[in-house]
């Protein structure tokens, strides 16, 4: 699932326009973003605090099995996901 | 009249500042500590430019560069300015995330709101069973958590 500092309304807009089927979570006050040390203060388009780009693959126990910071690479994620058996 | 010596320090200093900027731009995605390498190159560039300027002004009959020196130095300072601006942008838009969970660590628990306004906790997402392509209900083998910058 994807998480950003957008409000639920903004997320619904994105889901509708992009046809997404996975949950979009709203971290409006950037609390989860701060827990993951991904805060970019004031870097949002309207000056809001947002989270930097990052991906974390978690196993069912919540342990991080793979992560990627500041780049979005679908192939690397797919490789990592295969190891989750 | 003797031919004046080429003031190589001025050109080397200017070249070093360009190299420092280039190196930073090219290698920033690979490693953030390239910042220190670029800073060191700028320091070398400063030493060379200052030394070249001194020679051009103290011994103008021997060394060239009375006009080129100040121009090259200003350009070097401009390169340093661009570097400083780049550093500011990198810090603002690409978090170093030193405390983000590493592979093998537990992902921090959090509670957020989904796009319908329902409260959602990470623990829920990890254990909620979903229907797979053959119609059977299974708990997920994993969860991919994607942080993105937002939609605009």
What do these coordinates show?
The complex is a heterodimer of chains A (85) and B (152). Chain A has 85 residues and is an alpha+beta fold. Chain A folds into two domains: 1-52, no CATH class; 54-85, no CATH class. Helices cover 29% and strands 25% of the residues of chain A. In chain A, strands 1-2 form a two-stranded parallel ribbon. Chain A has a two-stranded antiparallel sheet with strand order 3-4. With 152 residues, chain B is mostly helical. Chain B has a domain at 8-93. Chain B has four helices and five strands; from the N terminus they run αααββαβββ. Chain B has helices at 8-27, 34-58, 68-93, 122-127, and strands at 111-114, 119-121, 130-131, 137-138, 143-147. In chain B, the strands form two sheets. In chain B, strands 1-2 form a two-stranded antiparallel sheet. Chain B has a two-stranded antiparallel ribbon with strand order 3-4. The interface between A and B is large, with 60 and 45 residues. Strand 5 (54-58) of chain A pairs antiparallel with strand 5 (143-147) of chain B, so a sheet runs across the interface.
Low-pLDDT runs of 5+ residues of chain A are none
Strand order of the largest sheet of chain B: 1-2
Helix-and-strand structural type of chain B:
mainly alpha
Mean pLDDT across all amino acids of chain B: 86
Largest sheet of chain B: 2 strands, antiparallel
Characterize the quaternary organization of these chains: heterodimer
The coarse overall form of chain A would be globular
Question: Reading side by side through the largest sheet of chain A, how are the strands ordered?
Answer: 1-2
Primary descriptors:
heterodimer; A: 85 residues; alpha+beta; two-stranded parallel ribbon; two-stranded antiparallel sheet; 3 helices; B: 152 residues; mainly alpha; 4 helices; 51% helix
In short:
The complex is a heterodimer of chains A (85) and B (152). Chain A is of the alpha+beta class and 85 residues long. Chain A has helices at 8-18, 31-35, 74-82, and strands at residues 2-4, 24-26, 39-40, 50-51, 54-58, 64-69.
């Amino acid at each position: 699932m994807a998480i950003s500092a957008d409000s639920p309304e903004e997320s619904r807009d994105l889901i509708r326009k992009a046809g997404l089927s996975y949950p979009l979570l709203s971290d409006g006050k950037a609390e989860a973003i701060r827990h993951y040390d991904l805060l970019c203060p004031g870097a949002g388009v309207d000056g809001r605090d947002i989270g930097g780009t990052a991906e974390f693959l978690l196993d069912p126990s919540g342990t991080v099995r793979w992560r990627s910071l500041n780049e979005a690479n679908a192939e690397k994620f797919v490789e990592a996901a295969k190891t989750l058996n | 009249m003797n031919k004046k010596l080429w003031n190589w320090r001025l050109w080397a200093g200017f070249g070093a500042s360009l190299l420092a900027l280039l190196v930073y731009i090219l290698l920033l995605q690979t490693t953030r500590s390239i910042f220190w390498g670029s800073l060191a190159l700028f320091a070398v560039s400063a030493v060379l430019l200052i030394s070249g300027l001194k020679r051009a002004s103290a011994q103008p009959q021997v060394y060239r560069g009375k006009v080129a020196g100040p121009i090259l130095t200003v350009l070097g300072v401009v390169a340093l300015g661009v570097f400083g601006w780049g550093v500011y942008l990198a810090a603002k838009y690409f978090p170093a995330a030193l405390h983000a969970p590493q592979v093998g660590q537990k992902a921090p628990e959090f509670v957020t709101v989904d796009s319908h306004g329902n409260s959602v906790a990470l623990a829920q997402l990890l254990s909620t069973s979903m229907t797979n392509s053959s119609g059977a209900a299974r708990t997920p083998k994993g969860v991919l958590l994607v942080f993105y910058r937002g939609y605009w």
